[in-house]
Amino acid sequence: MTMTAGRWMHAASSPFEVAAMQGTELPLHSRLFIVCGRSVEEDVLKQAFLPFGNLENIKLIKEKGVCFVKYDKASSAALAMESLNGAVLNNGKGPKLKVLLAEAPTPRGVQQQQGVAKLMPQPEQEVPSDPDNVPPRSRLFLVVPKTADGQLIHDELSRYPDLEYCKTDLIASKGVVFVKYAKASSALQALEEVAGKGMLASYKVKVMLAEPKTKRQRPE
After folding, report:
1. DSSP 3-state assignment of 21?
2. pLDDT digits (tens, 9 = 90+) for 84-123
3. CB burial class (10 A; 0-12, 13-18, 19+) of residue 193?
């Protein structure tokens, strides 16, 4: 069965559309949950997370040994998670951090009744162990004009680090491009900047996160 660009767009995930449907804060994937222990101070955590982007909010729940960190960009949150998950603060003295994507904020009255186990985000939905699904949020889907020059598209997207592939062979027939980066932070940076301009290599484009591949999904 032939899949049109419109159907591919419907199957892909726009962070802004998903956030609107789910009633979550924007941008999607910009809030982190950190297991940090009860002994760490907020200033220490702030200094650890500040280098990765613009911090909008940091909330330490000291009695539970956890913290929420909110960035203004999903790429900043991803970079912080990639860099600090498993890191040991205070020159190796501790604590060792566990950094995860946070779920949507919980109403205060409910949150006060929750223990650490319930504050922790649920594991991300399991997807088949296809290399294209690892790590999550590292693969993009673009809708481009069918007349677009694939080499120009590739060259522009290769400006972002950790590019694994840029499949431009479907441009002429479908007007779509699939792009995969080795890190979610690189993919999200590309998404944010291209979506913000709405242009790539002088072409008007649309970009979004690609859906994870499934066992039944046909090859692209």
Report:
1. helix
2. 999 999 888 889 999 999 986 655 544 444 555 556 665 5
3. middle
